[in-house]
């Protein structure tokens, strides 16, 4: 359908010069290069034993390491590791001395790694992260580690060494990078064109599917469903009447054989399918980081932008140079500390260190907080 335009990787761009202190650290790595690690917006700390194991593994490597981490400083941290609260991820990935990216598999990080051709060691936690990393692993550009075994039997160190020493990982990722870049139109330019196209043509009604003009009765094929249901019932009723008539004329053994045959035919003629429902909604964190890049590009082309935001928003600023905001008042919001605690307990649960009852209690609490955070105050 023409209603979907693929703009994956639109936020990726050539790297900017690094801040002076980071550039000095990167250059000090010599021929060994640098590893960077980030587990996303919300994973700012890890269980102490896991953090210590990761730090100890880094300390055994000849490479320098830049680790985005806000938790307790690991006691096993080596002199080759720089712990930072924030880092210019895209600019680092585009630096020629970066050899490896340790990531959680979020969409931003995966797309930036592909764009710059940096292989990945993945530690997926939830949502789409495992699927993103699995796609890279199947193409020989990444290696996935389970969060449950990352601190056992030197698994983390072995995974890093494998990706660093086996040239196929980098070669495969650079091949993906070439494929991604080899497009007639850049993803950002494509996004800008289609947004402006829809505005120029007053909603581009000519691109909308005919389903927009159909009644709910026709759209959901109620008449077709009723007809098929009646046809199936007629087949069953006819089969039942046929078997009942024949059974009166034949013995019990023949009756059983006919019943089994009829049942087998019905089972084999039945189609099975598996479907899923997908809900997409605006969220904080990395989702807004991507959107803000697109808004800046639209603003630079002279467009006036208005952003709907929560009064308790963490990332979406009320005042910005490139957009106006409409703030929806809410009484409550998701607490960052609560989310950090939930993620920490989720990791412990996956590793078998937290009883399922505790985790379920925490999950129900999070669902309640999420519901409260999206309840506006008064009428809009």
The biggest sheet amounts to: 6 strands, parallel
Query: How many distinct domains?
Result: 3
At CATH level 2, the architecture of the largest domain is 3-Layer(aba) Sandwich
- The name CATH uses for the topology of the largest domain is Rossmann fold
Q: Please identify the structural class as seen in this structure.
A: alpha/beta
Shape, per Cα inertia axes: globular
The count of DSSP E runs of length 2 or more, i.e. the number of strands, is: 8
Q: Which strand order does the major sheet show? A: 3-2-1-4-5-6
Helicity range: 40-55%
Give the SSE map.
Layout: H1 20-27, E1 34-38, H2 48-59, E2 64-68, E3 81-84, H3 89-93, E4 98-103, H4 107-116, E5 120-122, H5 129-138, E6 142-144, H6 155-165, H7 167-181, H8 187-200, H9 216-219, H10 222-249, H11 252-268, H12 286-300, E7 306-310, E8 324-328, H13 336-350, H14 356-373
Parallel strand pairs: 1-2, 1-4, 2-3, 4-5, 5-6, 7-8
Helix pairs in contact: 4-7, 10-11, 13-14
Subcellular location: Membrane
GO molecular function: glucuronosyltransferase activity
Membrane topology: Single-pass membrane protein
Structure in words:
This is UDP-glucuronosyltransferase. It is found in: Membrane. Its main location: membrane. The chain crosses the membrane at residues 224-243, 255-272. The protein has 380 residues and is of the alpha/beta class. Helix content is 48%, strand content 9%. The strands form two sheets. It has a six-stranded parallel β-sheet, sandwiched between helices. A two-stranded parallel ribbon has the order 7-8. The chain is globular, with a radius of gyration of 28 Å. 22% of the residues are buried. Mean pLDDT is 82; it is low at 271-282.
């Amino acid at each position: 359908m023409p209603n979907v335009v693929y703009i994956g990787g639109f936020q990726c761009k050539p790297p900017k010069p690094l801040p002076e202190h980071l550039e000095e650290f990167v250059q000090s790595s010599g021929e060994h290069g640098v590893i960077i690690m980030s587990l996303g917006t919300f994973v700012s700390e890890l269980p102490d034993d896991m953090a210590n194991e990761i730090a100890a593994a880094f300390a055994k490597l000849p490479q320098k390491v830049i680790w985005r981490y806000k938790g307790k400083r690991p006691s096993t941290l080596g002199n080759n590791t720089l712990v930072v609260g924030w880092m210019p991820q895209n600019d680092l990935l585009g630096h020629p001395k970066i050899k490896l990216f340790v990531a959680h598999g979020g969409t931003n990080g995966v797309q930036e790694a592909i764009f710059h051709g940096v292989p990945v060691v993945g530690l997926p936690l939830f949502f789409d992260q495992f699927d993103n990393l699995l796609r890279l692993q199947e193409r020989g550009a990444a290696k996935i580690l389970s969060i449950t075994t990352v601190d056992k039997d030197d698994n983390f160190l072995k995974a890093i060494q494998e990706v660093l020493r086996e040239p196929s990982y980098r070669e495969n990722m650079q091949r993906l990078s070439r494929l991604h870049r080899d497009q007639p139109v850049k993803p950002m330019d494509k996004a800008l064109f289609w947004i402006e196209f829809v505005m120029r043509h007053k909603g581009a009604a000519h691109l909308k599917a005919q389903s927009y003009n159909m009644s709910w009765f026709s759209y959901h094929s109620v008449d077709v469903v009723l007809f098929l249901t009646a046809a199936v019932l007629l087949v069953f009723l006819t089969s039942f009447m046929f078997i009942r008539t024949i059974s009166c004329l034949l013995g019990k053994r023949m009756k059983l054989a006919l019943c089994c045959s009829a049942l087998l035919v019905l089972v084999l003629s039945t189609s099975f399918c598996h479907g899923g429902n997908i809900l997409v909604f605006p969220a904080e964190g990395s989702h807004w980081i991507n959107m803000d890049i697109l808004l800046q590009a639209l603003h630079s082309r002279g467009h006036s932008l208005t952003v709907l935001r929560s009064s308790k928003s963490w990332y979406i600023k009320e005042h910005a140079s490139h957009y106006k905001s409409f703030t929806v008042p809410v009484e409550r919001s998701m607490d960052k500390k609560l989310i950090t605690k939930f993620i920490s307990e989720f990791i412990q649960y996956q590793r078998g260190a937290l009883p399922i009852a505790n985790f379920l209690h925490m999950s129900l609490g999070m669902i309640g907080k999420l519901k409260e955070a999206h309840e506006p105050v008064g009428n809009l």
